Amino acid sequence: MFSHIDSKNQPTMVDVSGKSATTRQAHATARVKLPSVVTDAMQDGDIHTAKGPVFQTAIVAGTMAAKRTHELIPFCHPLGLESCKIRIRLDDGGDAVIDCETTVYHKTGVEMEALTGVTVAALTVYDMCKGLSHDIVVTDVRLVSKTGGKSDYKAPSVGDISGTANE
Description:
Blueprint: E1 22-33, H1 36-39, E2 42-43, E3 46-49, E4 52-53, H2 54-67, H3 69-72, E5 83-90, E6 96-106, H4 111-129, E7 137-147, E8 153-154
Antiparallel strand pairs: 1-6, 1-7, 2-3, 3-4, 5-6, 7-8
């Protein structure tokens, strides 16, 4: 049974009024495959394009998106995030690896906020670098872990792209 369908088979927001507020955390990650023409623009830990510093801008965009998840995804509860941390690094192969970790004390989880934050950060990297190349691929968007609420989740370590999932 889907949680967003009521007894009359109609879409609905999940009722969390009977749940207890707890500290809830989520960690999501994404990979952006970058061609060498893009990574060649790397200076001082960031890619610099005519639009500005790519990673710094993507961090701001991802954070803004995570805070507005309820406006983008139907039936997400509006949450006052207490923490949203986005990190971006290049791995040994030249791909950008983006992590988003979110925290809230609430009756519902923050997985969608972490996933939204990491996805918009990845799309911002694409947007800012497309002038250098359109051969950029956003891939491997996934939930790494979540805690708080009814059950915790930790992604299997097989195929881990962030290097942080099961540490």
